[in-house]
Amino acid sequence: MSRGYVARAAASVERDVGGRTRLTRLRSDGPLALRETAEALYLVGAAAGPLGGDDFELALEIGPDARLAIRSVATTLALPGDSESRMTVRATVAAGGHLDFAPEPTVAAAGCHHRSTAAIDLAEGATLRWYEELILGRHLELPGKHTSRFDVTRDGVPLLRHELRLDDPAVFGSRSVVGDAKAIGSVLLVAPDLSREPHTAEGLAVLPLAGSGVLIAAAAGNSAVLRRRLAQGEELAGSGTSLNAMNAGASSNSA
Amino acid sequence: MDARLLLLADSRLPAGGHAHSGGLEPAVTAGAVTDVAGLADFLRGRLATSGLVAAALAAAACAHAHTGDQAWERLDAEADARTPSPAQRQASRAQGRSLLRAARTTWPHPALEALATAVREPHHPIVLGVSAAAGNGTPHQAATITAYGAITGPASAAVRLLGLDPLAVHRTLADLASGVDRIATEAAAAPDDWAALPAPSAPILDLYAELHMSADLRHFES
Questions:
Q1: How far is CA B12 from the centre of its chain?
Q2: Per-residue pLDDT tens for A23-82?
Q3: How far is CA B38 from the centre of its chain?
Q4: Of residues B45, B85, B214, nearest to A176 (C-beta)
Q5: How crowded is residue A164: how many other Cβ atoms within 10 Å of its Cβ?
Q6: Is B210's CB within 8 Å of A198's CB?
Q7: What's the average model confidence in pLDDT over A209-230?
């Protein structure tokens, strides 16, 4: 029986005396490779997958007043294998720090068995943009099992604990869960001055949380419509706020 | 089973549950549920998502009530974090407030007083769990009552809104009974660490809850 890759990658950023954000630690590991550019830190898939059996973990540390943007160069394709594949992201963001995490979509291919976990600890005064898109199967293909869990705390208080369990079609295909959507996405924004007004539109809900964050949840028949709906939701939730300026200026390097 | 727990599970308990449809009314308004088969599909999804979240919170609340400890705000915050929809948070707190009033009169217990002191309008599953403890119930029993209520409420709303055959709807509930037991078992087996309690989401229920809040004509509050 073949065993999957175990990869542990990490990046830390700090703000230097000149007010610039500087990478103080960058660790790529096998298929989980990180590349620094002027705009962002890129996840570069150095191998296909994840395949069943793979166990990837990315640890991010954003220091006080530092900013980090994470992007990826390509879609992540979750593929079958001997056992479950796992992707875990852990991040801590210190006061005044900002993390903008927005990789390309994940595609849950037929037969995959993928578990995605993210745990984010925000200090009081930290801000966040966390963007996720999931495509259920390649073209005309039924997806395998994909489960995700997203835990965000702010100053030690839980802000959002959110699972999406796409492992049993009789449940997730229910007209009360995701129905016949082929693309599901969400954006979590955390900032002090976001809109407190909920909004709805076809396949889109903008949900102000009990704490200072807004969850934008969208579903669609394809990825292009999904992306449009998420963009509309972000506009409704955060237009003209400090977070917009933050994301526009987010950078991973010192250049 | 202790007869006090039967009172807690009974829809005739004067705790305002009849005013809530658990998202069934907006689903009917959207044309998503029109018949018994559609209702069964709706309930299956609801049970495994918001039903499991509520059952796990109720089991945790019941276990916590038996310890006599405080910290109810922390468990209440865990319910908030699992309820991104403002309309659902509001409906849960409204039902929690009504049930708390009924429970303090029906089953006086120090844990109900402690909860009422710590949180002004606690989330409904937390009140359910503490009420079950006040009735000498176990966390597993609290989870069963909560999971059961997660499907019986919307089912009776469907009978009223769609004029469905009540016998056919009860047949659907009977078919889902083993699912209720499975969800209650999973909820009661959840870890002691509240942070790790289940949190499965139902994006369509979130959307319906918000649509319902802005609807002009409503029979049910949620």
A1: 15
A2: 999 999 988 999 999 899 999 976 677 899 999 999 999 999 999 999 999 999 999 988
A3: 21
A4: B45
A5: 25
A6: yes
A7: 97
Query: B42 and A171: CB-CB below 8 Å?
Result: no
Alpha-carbon distance of A130 to A135, in angstroms, equals 17
ipTM above 0.90, yes or no: yes
Give the closest of A164, A176, A215 to B27, CB-based: A176
Can you list the domains of chain B with their CATH numbers? Answer: 30-213 (1.10.4190.10)
Contacts of A166 in chain B (CB under 8 A): none
- Please report the pLDDT score of residue A188 as a whole number: 97
- Residue A238 tokens read as 């955060």
Amino acid identity of B199? A
Tell me whether B134 touches chain A (CB under 8 Å). Answer: no
Q: Which of B42, B198, B206 sits opposite A217 (nearest CB)?
A: B206
Give, in degrees to the nearest 5, the angle at Cα B97 between B95 and B99.
65
Residue A131: closest CA among A12, A10, A250: A250
Judge whether B82 and B199 are in contact, CB under 8 Å.
Answer: yes
Residue B59 near residue B192, CB atoms below 8 Å: no
In DSSP notation, A175-241 reads TTTTTT-SEEEEEEEE-TT-----EEETTEEEEE-SSSEEEEEEEESSHHHHHHHHHHHHHHHHTTS
Beta bridge partners of A162: A150
If interface means Cβ-Cβ distance under 8 Å, which residues of chain A face chain B?
149, 151, 157-165, 168, 170-172, 174-179, 184, 198-200, 203-205, 207-211, 215, 217, 219
